[in-house]
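Late entry, evening session. Most of the bench is empty. Finally got around to the prediction I had been postponing all week. Sequence below, unchanged from the version circulated by S.P.
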Amino acid sequence: MCIRDSYEVDATKVNTLITTKGEKKAFVKLSDEYDASDVAIRLGIL
């Protein structure tokens, strides 16, 4: 739900983990109608 509100995309699956450095990471699988590159552009990664 946070993914939908923040980035206006729907996720089919979200996995989270905490690294040994104490950082929290999330791996998000987007639904078929969304492209990951569009989200990356909004985040400023690309």
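Two things to note before I forget:
The mean pLDDT is 90.
The first strand starts at residue 11 and ends at 18.
Will write this up properly tomorrow.
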